[in-house]
Design brief:
Elements: H1 5-10, H2 33-51, E1 53-59, E2 61-62, E3 74-75, H3 81-97, E4 105-113, H4 121-132, E5 136-147, H5 154-162, E6 165-173, H6 177-182, H7 189-202, E7 206-213, H8 220-231, E8 237-242, H9 264-280, E9 284-287, E10 290-292, H10 297-303, E11 308-310, E12 313-315, E13 321-325, E14 330-332, E15 336-340, H11 344-352, E16 358-363, H12 366-381, E17 383-385, H13 391-407, E18 411-414, E19 417-420, H14 428-433, H15 437-442
Parallel strand pairs: 1-4, 1-13, 2-3, 4-5, 5-6, 6-7, 7-8
Antiparallel strand pairs: 8-10, 9-10, 11-12, 14-15, 15-16, 17-19, 18-19
Helix pairs in contact: 3-4, 3-11, 4-5, 5-7, 8-9
């Protein structure tokens, strides 16, 4: 579908990506650790034996700084940091095990970063073995890792495969040498070809490429070349992210000139081009930023209504408890969020004192849970049912916004049923915003930017 550039411009406003609700800016800077422990224990008891848990391990180290990156990372070439960090992760895991009286059933495990393949294969094996030997592995488990094409080796892949990993996501971003130079991420396309070949030969069944549109010096022609090159390798999934320019929180983004960023109009052209190329080459639009081949589990989950979204993005593992380990990691137990301390010093200090490193977080109210469900429904299934018990908040905050969206044919609201239109699938973040009570209640109080723009 061709999208009117005027409509894209209208909705290209700062909006959350909704990997959580409420979003992180509305969390409390300090949460009660005892209350968090009780909520974790309560939800673990409910969810562990029934459906298993998800585990996210943040590995923050990178050897060089990619200037576009907004992740929590630590730049170093000193690999002795691996041992110290692994010990802290395993000690933190032990603290959580002490809170429960049954063995964890791990259904989903994801290694993110930073650069997880900064760690040697032996150390990844040591870390993962230390966790998995104290757990039961769910028969339908899904283990995945983020890999850097430049340093993911055959030994990395073989080690991970033997531990049960079948999914890998390669950070591609852009194949154009000029763009790579300005964002300080030099990786020849031949390197990506070899990394993809190795993963397939080892036995990985799902390969994802992360691409970003809106980076400095990108053009329609360079983006077209990058996408065609990636399509030639037939990744099972593609995440096509909008570059989030947030220099107020990511200082590395100040290292290139904002004059080199594509104009809003060009960025919208890049988005439209990517969407067209993926969908005309056999990929299905799963939802916010994601495309998948019809043979991939993500597509099947979307078709069967099993799609879920959390801090790791879209996942086929719906509704389980997500435990985050490592510096800055976020845990989601359904009724509460908790984020670990953001500096290595503070994180290590907590673990050394045999205390959980949780700091920032949020305990959801009943109203939060209802509106969280609306947002998840929209992102994952494209429809939701409005509940009568929420009528006061819906009438005051959501319905006026939904009326504007419906006037632009982005959704249909018939009675209590809301359905996102085909056109509206390009504006999921904007539609979710209509249910963000925290943002809507305080939108006139915003004095500093909080979010990147939607497109």
């Amino acid at each position: 579908m061709k999208i009117d550039l005027a409509l894209l411009h209208k909705y290209n406003q700062p909006v959350p990506r909704y990997t959580s609700y409420p979003t992180v800016p509305y969390w409390q800077n300090e949460i009660d650790g005892d209350v968090w422990n009780r909520k974790f224990q309560q939800q673990f008891k409910i969810k562990n034996s029934r459906e298993g848990i998800s585990l996210y391990i943040h590995l923050p180290f990178c050897e060089s700084l990619c200037t576009y990156c907004g992740c929590n990372k630590k730049i170093t070439t000193n690999h002795s940091v691996e041992e110290v960090y692994m010990k802290a992760i395993l000690d933190e895991w032990g603290l959580y095990l002490n809170l429960v009286n049954e063995q964890p059933v791990i259904k989903e495990l994801h290694l993110g970063g930073g650069t997880p393949t900064f760690f040697s294969p032996d150390n990844l094996k040591k870390l993962l073995t230390g966790i998995l030997t104290q757990s039961t592995i769910h028969p339908n488990r899904e283990f995945s890792i983020e890999g850097h094409p430049n340093n993911t080796t055959q030994e990395h892949l073989e080690t991970l495969y033997k531990l049960g990993f079948r999914r890998i996501s390669y950070g591609v971003q852009d194949n154009d040498p000029k763009v790579q130079q300005v964002i300080n991420r030099i990786q020849p396309f031949t390197t990506l070809v070899e990394a993809t070949r190795m993963a397939r030969n080892v036995g990985f069944t799902s390969i994802n490429f992360d691409l970003i549109y809106g980076l400095p010096l990108q053009t329609v022609e360079s983006m077209q070349t990058t996408i065609h090159q990636c399509l030639s390798l037939q990744p099972d999934r593609v995440a096509f992210y909008s570059y989030a320019h947030v220099p107020w929180t990511s200082r590395g983004q100040r290292l290139f000139s904002e004059e080199d960023l594509p104009s809003p109009e060009l960025k919208m052209q890049l988005y439209s081009l990517g969407k067209e190329l993926f969908t005309t080459n056999g990929y299905y639009d799963i939802g916010m930023d994601h495309f998948a081949l019809p043979t991939d589990d993500l597509y099947l989950a979307a078709q069967q209504g099993r799609l879920h979204r959390n801090f790791m993005g879209y996942t086929t593992q719906a509704g389980g408890l997500l435990l985050g380990l490592g510096v800055s990691s976020i845990s989601d137990v359904g009724i509460a969020f908790a984020q670990n301390k953001k500096t290595l010093h503070e994180y290590y200090q907590s673990i050394q004192h045999k205390e959980l490193a949780t700091q920032k977080g949020y305990f959801l109210t009943e109203e939060d849970l209802h509106f969280k469900r609306y947002i998840l429904d929209i992102i994952c299934t494209g429809s939701t049912i409005l509940n009568e018990e929420d009528s006061e908040a819906l009438n005051k905050y959501s319905l006026p916004e939904l009326g504007k969206l419906q006037a632009d044919e982005l959704l249909n609201l018939a009675g209590s049923k809301l359905t996102v239109t085909t056109l509206g699938r390009n504006f999921l973040r904007n539609i979710c915003r209509a249910f963000d009570l925290h943002l809507l209640k305080h939108q006139h109080e915003v004095t500093v930017p909080k979010y990147s723009k939607a497109i």
